[in-house]
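User: Show me a protein chain along with its predicted structure.
Assistant: Here is one chain, sequence first, then structure tokens.
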Amino acid sequence: MTSSRRFDAQPARVLAASPASTPRSRHQAFAAATLALLVGAAALSATQANAQTVVTERRNAVSFSATASQELTQDLLIVTLQANKDGAQASEVQAGLKQQLDAALTEARKAVQPNGALEVRTGAFSIHPRYTNQGKVNGWQGQAQLVIQGTDMARIAQTVGRLNQLNVVNVRYDLSRALREQYESQVTAQAIAAYRAKAVDVAKAFGFANYTLGEVNIQAGEGFENRPVPMMMKAARAEVADSAPLPVEPGKGTVTVTVSGLVVLAP
């Protein structure tokens, strides 16, 4: 018996090869890579140069400050007067305080002067319960304040003297805004001049001939003579004649300007 074998022919599969890179495309890729390297190198060089400049500036930088001040007589007087009232009912206390405050305001407004010479305004107004030792409400008490302030101290003292129905609870002196601003620019110029002169001295002390300004800050402040003024309660004021002026004597205030910052020493 003869056996036979059958062979089926399979179609040949041909894989398409990727097109080979052309010389032109290789040249473009090389140019792009070269450009990227050049940009990165330039950026790195600039960063290093900036870092070197910062290090150099820090190496030759000095920080210090200079201050100028001017002592002035305080020209602003602020007087706080207070009405006190006790009662069984809160409404009763409120009505009594309002009556006293309205009467004082009517009298004080007669003395008002423009341009900050004498000003009148109301202050704090409060009513609160009064308690017994057992914690029960045993009535009400309240306070209402009137504030008189200005640069005409003699007029203020006379006005306060006429308000005998109120108690003087606080007397304070200060520098008026006009006086402070008048001298602040002058003191600022003195502080800047002192700072520049100090910069020259510092540069010479370190062996440098010049300097350049870095960051500079200018701060203005105000100081005052801390003189406590005793409170004149109504009992004490009863010893003097009615309408007697309030004794006043201003203290000293100081306008201060400080210039601080950094300079870079230069050859």
